[in-house]
Specification:
This protein has two helices and five strands; from the N terminus they run ααβββββ. Strands 1, 2, 3, 4 and 5 form a five-stranded mixed beta sheet that branches. The protein is an alpha+beta fold. 39% of the residues lie in helices and 23% in strands. The termini are far apart.
């Protein structure tokens, strides 16, 4: 029996190794780009959460402000008529409330500083009106509706979140 050697297949191992190395390199680059994008997305999510929780703290402080400073309808009427106090009637908004950057540069928004929450918040209170009682002869306290509007901002001011909560109080 004769032994047959094939001499024309020299170097095929090297070519196959180079192709495998190229495919592995491309896969590693793609994985690196994907993980970098996930890192950026996680950072954006964290910044949005900071702004959201700051706005939530603003809502809570706005509600506490109503409970502390408005105990009668007479006080509410007086507060609504004073300028630059953060309380206004619906339709008398002092600026475009959807322009979130303006919230942190104006004196007619109240600061809602909270040591527990990172970021900062500002709030305003909008009196929506009294809700008429069902009994026209009722002379007791009347239900009043307020919107507490808060804007939270993350640490560096790059993300803002606005929350509006309707609050009802008997005055």
């Amino acid at each position: 029996m004769k032994s047959v050697t094939i001499n024309n297949q020299r170097g095929i191992t090297m070519i196959m190794s180079l192709i495998l190395l190229f495919v592995t390199t491309i896969a590693a680059i793609a994985a690196g780009r994907g993980s970098g994008l996930q890192y950026i997305m996680a950072g954006n999510s964290a910044q949005s959460q900071i702004a959201y929780y700051a706005a939530e703290a603003g809502i809570e402080q706005g509600e506490a402000w109503i409970d502390t400073n408005i105990s009668s309808s007479g006080q509410r009427r007086a507060l609504v008529n004073v300028s630059n106090n953060g309380v206004f009637q619906q339709g008398d908004e002092p600026f475009d409330l959807s322009d979130l950057k303006l919230w942190f540069s104006r004196s007619d928004t109240k600061s809602a500083n909270n040591a527990i929450v990172r970021g900062q918040a500002r709030f305003m209170i909008r009196w929506l009106g009294e809700i008429a009682p069902l009994d026209p002869n009722y002379t007791g306290k009347r239900l009043n509706a307020f919107d507490v509007i808060a804007v939270g901002e993350n640490d560096d001011g790059s993300v803002q979140t606005q929350i509006i909560s309707t609050v009802y109080r008997y005055l």
